[in-house]
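#random but structural
TW: two for the price of one
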Amino acid sequence: MKKFIITGLALLIVGLASTKVWAEETDSSVPSNINAIALGNALTQEQKQQTLSSLGQVKEVPIYTTDGNDLMKYISKTDFNANWQVFSSVHLETKAKNSGIEVEIATPSNITSITADQYKNAAQTAGITDAKITVASVIPIDGSGALAGVYKIVEEAGGTVDSTRTQAAQQEMQVLNEITNENQNVEGYSDEKLNAAQEEAKELLAKAASEGQKINQAVVTEAVNTALENQGLNNILTKDQINQLIELLTMLNNKNIFDKLSQEMNLSDIKNQLEAKSQGLWAKIQQFFSNIWQSIQSLFGSSTETSESTSSN
């Protein structure tokens, strides 16, 4: 039995030397030809024109209105109600396959809580893979309305939005935002690095899922540690903050997010993206899976008991 498992894992790791390309069809429920805007319901006519200008509207596109009902539907916060005033707005335009997600906050001084990288991670977790997202607000606001607007545009365009994924994306955003707030004055830290590490960890786990790897806490922990090290954050984040990331990714795995991402993302594209972020990173990814193999090997010769922590999210 031991020989069978180890041999199987060896074949899995050897397979990482080559790339696999998914079929053109994916399980994504996001239409490939979206170009639309969602404006907050609280805007005056003058503010609407100002917002449209900030969003870079250059031609006639569908314009929808985001209101309190949309916040209640798409964003998992308990204090929203049907009468909520929404100011932050968004322009969503899908791009060619494998273009990735680009986010621009056109009015950075007025989006006070959610960063561009956090929007990007949330969109990816929710199932959006190739798009340009532009966010704007005429007054200082946290930016939740714009995120709800993204999801509303997808549904208005004929797509479907999985509430499990949007809720997971919201939890992800909250955790990353809290960690960023806790490290505002810490040398060597940046929100960009944290979100890059989160994206990288998700890509590692999507890669593992695509290869049939069982994703348990040890695999999640290895992915988090690898991604943080590659972004230079492994000695900057506290142990508690690292555990928050592990719990977050464990929660995403429990919701089958990585299985879905592995179907939506092109594997060869993941490899290229990771290599672009850091020279020789693909070799580190191979080492990541090698470490998992060695850990499993050690289980056969050790009676050490391990337990998986449960997510508090």
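TW: number two ↓
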Amino acid sequence: MKGMEQRKSSIEIYRSPEGNIELNVKLENDTVWLTQSQMAELFGRDRTVISRHVNNCFKEGELDKSLVCAKFAHTKKYGRHDGFEQVVETEYYNLDVIISVGYRVKSINGTRFRQWANSILKQYIIKGYAINQKRLDNYNELKEVVRLMSRAITLQDQVSEGEYNGLFNVISDYVYALDTLDKYDYQTLLIDKTTQAEPFHATYENAMEAINALKEKFGGSKWFANEKDDSFKSSIGQIYQTFGGEELYASVEEKAAMLLYLVVKNHSFSDGNKRIAAMLFLWFMEKNGILYAENRHKRIADNTLVALTLMIAESRTEEKDVMVKVVVNLINKDNQ
């Protein structure tokens, strides 16, 4: 779990409907955590079976161990003597691993636990960061909302199954840490450290070629990418809009952010607006050579882009400038 912001952990009690399973579940870094022993109890399997499935999900490339496994310190009884304790580190596995193992052992308790964990994490979001109830007072709050929404989306209950799969199919290759956000404050957000060189110019024609390629690759309903009006053509033109002979969106990053915003908000297509917006955002960055940082890391995380796309969809018109600045600060040259 390198690079993740450490937050105060808490313990939630999970009880099975039958009452025969009770687990102390660690809640930290916006997810829930269990040990292999706890998973063995949850799924009613021997620990060696759980260990084999955990190792297989790493060997098969389904999950990256460095992202879903962490060591947490806790105290336990030392030897046979009462009153003596020692601090030990134990490996814990997050919800992604728990769900994977649950599928592999075909346990109904995996589904029950996922639903319970989803409920707990939703409460965590609602109590701490009610994005739809009030304006965000500072950018640190916005950063946490992005992180928490990312977790909620991975639980598949924030969006439909089709939209979830479509969004992640488009951006599953773009993995990068959220922690570069830590230096930014909502009250002082600026657009800087951006890219002026622009080797690629988006047009309605080449954008539609990219959209049609997306449709051929991932499929979709017969209404996917079906234009309802001329608003998409207008969106492409708007990112190159000028005033007094100067571009309103002078950098590649600003144009990419505006393209994402406009395609999401204009609802130009009968189906697939968010998927198309996310794809065009990455397409525009890649064509202009800013998708990857100098160290070849991608500049924006997959979950972050999904969360931002959905947040843009839910944002109010007067929040446009804030949303664009957030996106720019996630993809500018500070993200190396």
